[in-house]
Amino acid sequence: FMEKEQEEKGGATRGTAYHRVLQFLPFERAMSRQELNAFPAKLAAEGRMDAEAAALVRGSDLAKLTASSLAAGKLYREKQFVIGIPAREMGDWDSDERILIQGIIDAFFEEDGKLVLVDYKTDYVENSDILIRRYEAQVRYYTRALEQMTGKRVAERYLYSFRFGAIEV
User: Fold this and answer.
1) Which of 33, 61, 157, 158 could be a cystine partner for 117, CB 3.0 to 4.6 Å?
2) Whether pLDDT at 73 is above 70
3) Distance of CA 167 to CAs 106, 123, 129, 134, 162, Å?
4) Over the stretch 81-129, which tens digit does the pLDDT of each residue have?
5) 3-state secondary structure labels for all residues of the chain
């Protein structure tokens, strides 16, 4: 039991560390492998994150992400939202009463007048199907929120898994 609790705590800490680094990573310019390796420690030295958390982020993971097509162009990051959803859309309730959903969209960019949504995942799971099942509803809500905020259609949705790479949802 204690091992599982430690593993879950470690996983959450690692995920938070990755999200913090990605919040500041300058996607608009190419970075060398050496720069990517040093970037988390640089954030810690600047007081933007804890040094222990920075040590959890692997430069090789950042290199894979920055080399992917999901890091191209103008990337909008950490977009907060609150939307109202009828209760009947949330489960087995027979009500149109609004339920508020609050979240933060990790990243999105525009491509040919349509949006591409990206949600970063550090989960350690056996296969990508598990991630899709685990986060499909979240991605639907993020899509809905982004379309309401921008008035533009979300054409593609991806989970970016640091284990599996880009996974279309």
Assistant:
1) 157
2) no
3) 15, 13, 9, 13, 11
4) 999 988 888 877 788 899 899 999 999 999 888 999 999 999 999 999 9
5) CHHHHHHHHHHHHHHHHHHHHHHHCCCCCCCCHHHHHHHHHHHHHCCCCCHHHHCCCCHHHHHHHHHCHHHCCCCEEEEEEEEEEEHHHCCCCCCCCEEEEEEEEEEEEEECCEEEEEEEECCCCCCHHHHHHHHHHHHHHHHHHHHHHHCCCEEEEEEEECCCEEEEC
Q: In terms of DSSP bridges, do strands 114-121 and 165-168 run parallel, antiparallel, or are they unpaired? A: unpaired
Amino acid at 168: E
The pair phi, psi for residue 99, each rounded to 5°, is -115, 130
CA distance 154 to 117: 7
Q: Could you read off the pLDDT of 145-168 as tens digits, one per residue?
A: 999 999 999 999 999 999 999 999
The β-bridge relationship of strands 98-111 and 76-86 is: antiparallel
Structure tokens at 104: 């933060």
